[in-house]
Design brief:
6-stranded parallel beta sheet; two-stranded antiparallel sheet; alpha/beta; Rossmann fold; 2 domains; binds zinc ion
Length: about 220
């Protein structure tokens, strides 16, 4: 049944947001409502000039950030609906937006492996899917890059980062992820829905580097400014 309705949706050619006819995930009108990040810093994704780029700090290990859109209305509604209202098909539409940004960013061209940020098992069972995987799938398919899911786990169901201060976020994320996959020499891109402070993705990036990755960048649909 679920498969059938998914198939129907895919064949219907409807905008994932407003339901009007569209050949791609979001129609032209809904795309025009999204706010691009103006002149983003290649290292952190914040609009330039960045007063202090976090890449200069010792905890920031991401080589590059690609996050084309500001996390503001109506994009935040789509992300929330994908995560909390079971609107799984929005993942594909958001992934398509990310594909365009990644394709046009030379920093991304040597990436060999995509790692979606894992959900804790309990959250996964509640939700039935991982929104980061839903976003990453069309990216991996369009760019013909390996999608790496097995062997990368979230060990603890961390508290919602948005409600915490900077120090609490770091404590919350310490050893939040475990990587049992050999990534020796691999150039990796982590995929997520939104980058807020970057603490979550940096925490995962640390573990990927310990597992042998030669470089890690972050790709997300949206950036909190
Ligand atoms: Zn639309
Ligand atoms: Zn920066």
């Amino acid at each position: 049944m679920v498969y059938h309705s998914l198939l129907q949706f895919l064949l219907s050619g409807r905008c994932a947001a407003c339901g009007s006819g569209s050949a791609t995930g979001l129609c032209t009108g809904c795309r025009a409502d999204l706010a691009p990040v103006e002149r983003p810093c290649a290292h952190c994704g914040l609009p330039m000039p960045v007063s202090t780029c976090p890449r200069q700090g010792s905890t920031w290990v991401l080589d590059a950030v690609i996050a084309p859109l500001e996390y503001v209305e109506p994009l935040d509604d789509y992300v929330q609906a994908l995560k909390f209202a079971g609107r799984r098909h929005l993942g594909r539409a958001l992934g398509e937006l990310l594909v365009e940004a990644v394709r046009t960013s030379p920093a991304s061209w040597n990436v060999e492996t995509i790692v979606p940020v894992p959900l804790h098992r309990r959250r996964f069972l509640e939700r039935g899917y991982n929104q980061a995987v839903e976003i990453a799938r069309p990216v991996a398919a369009a760019l013909r890059i390996d999608l790496c899911i097995a062997g990368i786990r979230r060990q603890r169901a961390t508290a919602a980062q948005a409600q915490l201060g900077a120090n609490e976020r770091r404590a919350n994320l310490r050893r939040a992820f475990s990587v049992t996959r050999d990534l020796k020499g691999r150039r990796v891109a982590i995929v997520d829905d939104v980058i807020t402070t970057g603490a979550t993705i940096n925490s995962l990036a640390h573990e990927l580097l310990l597992a042998g990755a030669s470089s890690v960048q972050a790709w997300a649909v949206a950036r909190s400014i």
